[in-house]
TrEMBL record:
GO BP terms, alphabetized: amino acid biosynthetic process; aromatic amino acid family biosynthetic process; chorismate biosynthetic process
Annotated catalysed reactions: 7-phospho-2-dehydro-3-deoxy-D-arabino-heptonate = 3-dehydroquinate + phosphate
Protein residues bound to NAD(+): G109, V110, I111, G112, D113, T133, T134, K146, K155
Domain named 3-dehydroquinate synthase N-terminal: residues: 72-182
PANTHER family: 3-DEHYDROQUINATE SYNTHASE, 3-DEHYDROQUINATE SYNTHASE, CHLOROPLASTIC
Protein name in UniProt: 3-dehydroquinate synthase
EC number: 4.2.3.4
Necessary cofactors: Zn(2+); NAD(+); Co(2+)
Role: Catalyzes the conversion of 3-deoxy-D-arabino-heptulosonate 7-phosphate (DAHP) to dehydroquinate (DHQ).
Gene symbol of the encoding locus: aroB
GO cellular component: cytoplasm
InterPro entries (alphabetical): Dehydroquinate_synthase, DHQ_synth_AroB, DHQ_synth_fam, DHQS/DOIS_N, DHQS_C
Location of the 3-dehydroquinate synthase C-terminal domain: 185-334
Length: 369
């Protein structure tokens, strides 16, 4: 077994994120130490991932004598609501998933969030293992314990903090993603450089195109570095009382754009994060917090990666700047009615602030539309 480990030291809820090629095939050996006498796990996945990889997971578990039962939910964001959540919880109960058993979340962010939330409430909390199959899930949603589903009022408004017991990020599995999905995940990778590590951003400027083209060693290093940065932040601020909000760089703009495009194929979450990061840097420059070169550099890198970086890159019409700002008011980062933004003093130096004039946000949006 050859893999790298990022440890998330959260006391009695500490866990490893293991990153390497072929971890699905070795899943049984990694999960076996978490199991008691009952050598069986309960897998929640989606139909796309099941079609591509479920038999490989079954074989990987069987090689360590572990049995599995699986429920494949429809792929897509609309699964992340009460109906499929209820279905998943009732299936786990029907399959007799007990207090000491392990739920396995095998899929992207939708499955990880839903399965983690199901595990958090089932019998008042059972353990779960994340096996993220998208770049976005490997570098962001599978680590840190945010779980949940969407409400009609907004994304991720129903949920719980529930840390996984283990995360297995199989780098080889990223090879089955479409280029668009891979690059959407990269939106979260470049975010780490922008929020807290200029050296990492420089590394991405040099290596991003090669890792997008398929270099597995570079992919593993990008995932490892991103996960290490996320782990460091989560350990400082598990429940987002402060620093963890830095991980939301670009997300205030992104959530408004996702709502405006109906959470559809017009804009994937990671694409919205990338555009949102470019807008956050533009706003920071206009407020005199960073130089004008910083937003230009962000946009240049996204363009070099073949990614969307401007509002105009989103297909179809967008609502007015005023309507987009109104959509931001639904964001979970609203505190005492004040919108909080993640702004930056330069690449790698982001900070959280509520001190942003509405007019400045409107001006950035109006000029971009
Ligand atoms: N995805 C942001 C966080 O985990 O805090």
């Amino acid at each position: 077994m050859s893999y790298q480990t990022v440890h998330v030291p959260l006391g009695d809820r500490a866990y490893d994120v293991r990153i390497g090629e072929g971890l699905v095939a070795e899943a049984g050996a990694h999960i076996a130490p978490l199991l008691g006498k009952k050598k069986k796990v309960f897998v929640l996945t989606d139909e796309t991932v099941a079609g591509l990889h479920l038999e490989a997971l079954r074989a990987g578990l069987a090689s360590a004598g572990i049995d599995m039962v699986a429920l494949a939910l429809p792929a897509g964001e609309s699964t992340k609501g009460w109906p499929q959540f209820t279905r998943a919880v009732e299936w786990l109960l029907a399959e007799k998933c007990e207090r000491r058993d392990i739920v396995v979340a095998f899929g992207g962010g939708v499955i990880g969030d839903l399965a983690g939330f199901a595990a958090s409430v089932l019998r008042r909390g059972v353990r779960f293992v994340q096996i993220p199959t998208t770049l976005l899930a490997q570098v962001d949603s599978s680590v840190g314990g945010k779980t949940g589903i969407n409400a009609p009022q907004g994304k991720n408004l129903i949920g719980a903090f529930h840390q996984p017991s283990l995360v297995l990020a199989d780098i080889a599995i990223l090879g089955t993603l479409t280029e668009r999905d891979f690059l959407a995940g990269y939106g979260e990778v470049q975010k780490y450089g922008l929020l807290g590590d200029e050296g990492f951003f420089e590394w991405l400027e040099a290596n991003g195109p090669k890792l997008a083209a398929g270099d597995l060693g570079l992919r593993a290093e990008a995932v490892r570095h991103s996960v290490q940065m996320k782990a460091d932040i989560v350990v400082r601020d598990e429940t987002e009382q402060g620093d963890r909000a830095l991980l939301n760089l670009g997300h205030t703009f992104c959530h408004a754009l996702e709502a405006a495009t109906g959470y559809s194929d017009r804009l994937l979450h990671g694409e919205g994060v990338a555009i949102g990061c470019a807008l956050a840097f533009e706003l920071s420059a206009r407020l005199g917090l960073c130089s004008q070169e910083a937003p230009s550099r962000v946009r240049e890198h996204l363009k070099a990666m073949g990614m969307k970086c401007d509002l105009k890159d989103i297909p179809g019409d967008l609502p007015s700047a005023e309507a987009l700002v109104d959509l931001m008011a639904q964001d979970k980062k609203v505190l005492d009615g004040q919108l909080r933004f993640i702004l930056a003093r330069g690449i790698g130096s982001a900070f959280v602030t509520a001190d942003v004039p509405r007019e400045a946000v409107l001006a950035v949006l109006r000029d971009g539309l």
